[in-house]
Amino acid sequence: MSEAAPLRLGVNIDHVATIRNARGGEHPDPVKAALMAVAAGADGITAHLREDRRHIRDEDLVRLKAQLSRPLNLEMAATREMVGIALKTHPHAACIVPERRQELTTEGGLDAARHHNVLAPVVAELKAASIRVSLFITCDPRQIEAAASLGAPVIEIHTGAWCEAVADRRPAIASVEFQRIKDGAARARSLGLEVHAGHGLDYRTAETISGLAEIVELNIGHFLVGEALFGGLTETVKTMRAAMDRGRARLAVPS
Ligand code: PXP
Known about the structure:
- It is a single chain.
- By secondary structure, the chain is an alpha/beta fold.
- The protein has one domain (about 10-250): Aldolase class I (TIM Barrel, Alpha-Beta Barrel).
- It has helices at about 15-25, 30-40, 60-65, 80-90, 115-130, 140-150, 160-165, 170-190, 205-210, 220-230, 235-250; strands at about 10, 45-50, 70-75, 95, 130-135, 155-160, 195-200, 215-220.
- It has an eight-stranded parallel β-barrel, surrounded by eight helices.
- Strand 3, helix 4 (about 80-90) and strand 4 form a beta-alpha-beta unit.
- Helix 9 packs parallel to helix 11.
- Bound molecules: pyridoxine-5'-phosphate (PXP).
- Pyridoxine-5'-phosphate binds next to strand 8 and helix 10.
């Protein structure tokens, strides 16, 4: 039996900052959470610096970059301001996401096909600075092909619609959405793209999606931070890692 490609866990610490910012001040510190997550087995840390700075602040990024022993993945909108910050901070990776000020979270994927002209220079500039670029898209063949034509080496599949259908116990929709992810991941790999996934994942959905061989990284935030209230961050990250490992173990394929 040969092993499937390893599956990385990126822990998104935005919502530790959300709690901090509810009262201002410094507590709880998202950088402390990031260091704990790494110690518990996270392969990387993700942080989204939003235009309105509703959770992560500029100085959090500076501290993350200085203190982390694992790769930092900066989620960012394709704006001049964010490109400037990315070039200055120089994270290991940048995930380009759509951003609307009113939304509660990143509600949909990028329209990589429609915004080709805006995205192309951003992808090129970040790549030229040796920052690994991913595009956060819904699993639609048009978007996957657009991401490939933009020269982005990585896509991150938006798993929100599938996770929502699972959580709402709508199995027919969940199964259509999962099939879409499965087909999209295979299509993306065939185009030479590295495939990541994230949004709305919990223990159960993370275990299921870990069974897709094409996916090599999951980025998970809200569930982990919420669950940490009950089980502690260290235990929560370890339990998530174990769920992913269980899902991945089913993948061992004959060589
Ligand atoms: N990946 C991307 C690109 C995201 O924008 C988010 C949400 O910030 C996540 C993953 C994590 O989603 P969640 O917080 O629902 O786990």
